[in-house]
């Protein structure tokens, strides 16, 4: 072995060992290497498909890389001159049959498994009966809005009862977004002019995090979503009382604050605290419904284009009472 290689060997070995050790830790902590733990039957099926494919690809990877190392070692030059060709090996009918038929079989197994799992990912379980909880999910630049069966609305956080099938209608009024709560199922695009359907059934009380998964504009990264799965009584209290009582605040923090700052003191969008428009309900309604265009480019998306009058009223009341701080000092 040349001296240079021999000197580097301990370094390379320790790098390799550190990589091995940290890889184990990363996988143990999830670390982005494995799908998140499934908490809905459809997410379960997506994960099992992932692990089946991972098993085959990992086995093929180990096989190919081990053979590579064995052959590099076995057929090394052993001091043979560079200009002299090594032994030539031709043809091995049985091996060639195996490496042709093997992949065909593997692909057939994967395809069969996927087709077996697919219906349970796309379709609601029969246990949902005729009465799942229907919720409409609206993608907006840059927030998610949820409409409940009783007409209640929430923004950014979807409340659902645990252990019940929730049927989602996913829509968008502006651009394409993508609804995705990894622990509760796969992605589904929110496409303007189309209604897409998905569902989930959270198996555990808790909060499940998600993120819009389609680049939808400058604040795409801020378009997060949370699903809170809670006991039936808590869910009923939320949609009958809390959602209504906190609507204005939810609208401001979920939609306006993304650009205008949590207190409305400005961010990407201008400071609102001293803007007297906040005290004029009809002006507020016009701006949030239609957005703002300047020099042919949109400076504010029509965030409230689908809102009901009650929703606009709730926002206007909140802006006037909790965001507006009076005219700028000195004027
Ligand atoms: Cu909406 Cu990205």
What brief labels describe this structure?
binds dinuclear copper ion; 7 helices; five-stranded mixed β-sheet; Cytochrome Bc1 Complex, Chain D, domain 2; 331 residues; single chain; alpha+beta; 3 domains; Immunoglobulin-like
What is the CATH domain class of the largest domain? Answer: Mainly Beta
Helix-and-strand structural type: alpha+beta
- CATH topology of the largest domain, by name, is Immunoglobulin-like
Total of domains: 3
Number of helices: 7
Shape: elongated
- Measured by DSSP, the beta-strand proportion falls in 15-25%
Q: Give the topology string: H per helix, E per strand.
A: HHHEEEEEEEEEEHHHEEH
Helix content: 40-55%
What does this structure look like?
The mean pLDDT is 88. The strands form 4 sheets. The protein has a 5-stranded mixed sheet with strand order 3-2-1-5-8. A 3-stranded mixed sheet has the order 4-10-9. α2 runs antiparallel to α3, α5 packs across α7 and α6 (281-290) crosses α7 (309-323). It contains 7 helices and 12 strands. The protein has helices at residues 3-28, 41-74, 93-122, 232-245, 247-260, 281-290, 309-323, and strands at residues 133-140, 143-147, 153-155, 157-161, 166-172, 177-179, 188-190, 196-200, 206-211, 224-230, 292-294, 297-300. It folds into 3 domains: 37-64 and 95-123; 132-244, Cupredoxins -  blue copper proteins (Immunoglobulin-like), CATH 2.60.40; 249-323, Cytochrome c-like domain (Cytochrome Bc1 Complex, Chain D, domain 2, Orthogonal Bundle). The protein is of the alpha+beta class and 331 residues long. It is 43% helix and 18% strand. The structure holds dinuclear copper ion (CUA). The site of dinuclear copper ion has 8 residues, from loops.
């Amino acid at each position: 072995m040349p001296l240079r290689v021999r000197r580097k060997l301990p370094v390379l070995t320790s790098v390799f060992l550190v990589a091995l050790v940290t890889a184990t830790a990363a996988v143990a902590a999830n670390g982005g290497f494995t799908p998140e733990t499934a908490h809905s039957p459809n997410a379960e099926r997506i994960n099992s498909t992932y692990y089946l494919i991972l098993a085959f690809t990992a086995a093929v990877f180990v096989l190919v890389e081990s053979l590579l190392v064995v052959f590099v070692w076995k057929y090394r030059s052993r001091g043979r001159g560079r200009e002299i060709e090594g032994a030539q090996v031709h043809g091995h009918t049985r091996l060639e049959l195996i490496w042709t038929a093997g992949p065909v079989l593997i692909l057939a197994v994967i395809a069969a498994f996927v087709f077996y799992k697919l219906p349970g990912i796309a379709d609601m379980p029969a246990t949902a009966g005729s009465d799942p909880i229907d919720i409409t999910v609206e993608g907006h630049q840059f927030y998610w809005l949820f409409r409940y069966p009783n007409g209640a609305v929430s923004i950014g956080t979807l409340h659902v009862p645990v252990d019940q099938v929730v049927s989602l209608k996913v829509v968008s009024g502006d651009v394409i977004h993508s609804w995705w709560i990894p622990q509760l199922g796969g992605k589904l695009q929110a496409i303007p002019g189309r209604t897409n359907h998905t569902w989930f059934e959270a198996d555990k009380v808790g909060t499940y995090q998600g993120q819009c998964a389609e680049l939808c504009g400058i604040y795409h990264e801020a378009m997060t979503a949370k699903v809170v799965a809670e006991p039936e009584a808590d869910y009923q209290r939320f949609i009958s009382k809390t959602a209504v009582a906190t609507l204005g605040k939810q609208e401001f923090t979920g939609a306006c604050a993304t650009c205008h700052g949590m207190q409305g003191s400005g961010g990407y969008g201008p400071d609102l605290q001293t803007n007297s428009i906040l005290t004029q309900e009809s002006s507020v309604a016009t701006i949030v419904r239609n957005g703002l265009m300047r020099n042919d480019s949109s400076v504010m998306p029509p965030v409230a284009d689908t809102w009901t009058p009650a929703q606009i009223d709730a926002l206007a009341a909140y802006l006037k009472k909790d965001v507006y701080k009076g005219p700028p000092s000195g004027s």
